[in-house]
Amino acid sequence: MSSVQEKMYDRRDSSLRFVNGPDELDFEWNEYKSSMAAMSCGHAVTPMSLTAWCRHLLSEGICKFTCPVERKDNKKKCDAEWPYTEVRRMALLTPEEKVEFEEKLARLAAGEYCDVKQLTEKEALISAGSA
Ligand SMILES: [Zn+2]
Q: Helix, strand, or coil here: 82?
């Protein structure tokens, strides 16, 4: 075991929507101690499980953060796309993790493995502004 401290949600944080478990991203049965909070799609995560899942996606060369939870009604993957800003907030990324994630995202974007919508929108804004 590493000595990395487990990240936990602050129960007093009113921007989070707390839900009762199970932690739907805890695929490795780590049984994190944090409270569970709902993502925008409604599925429950802990900061640790969300960080681990998104790190896994990045290591696979995937730069879209999608929800892997199986829906109970039709047994299909939820597949909701979480913006990085939501992941950053909900995973309680540490400064080191932010650097790690953002470097990986930038590298993936540069390699054209993914279409980074934010970038093209930004470029469009810039060219519109300079016209
Ligand atoms: Zn979901």
A: strand
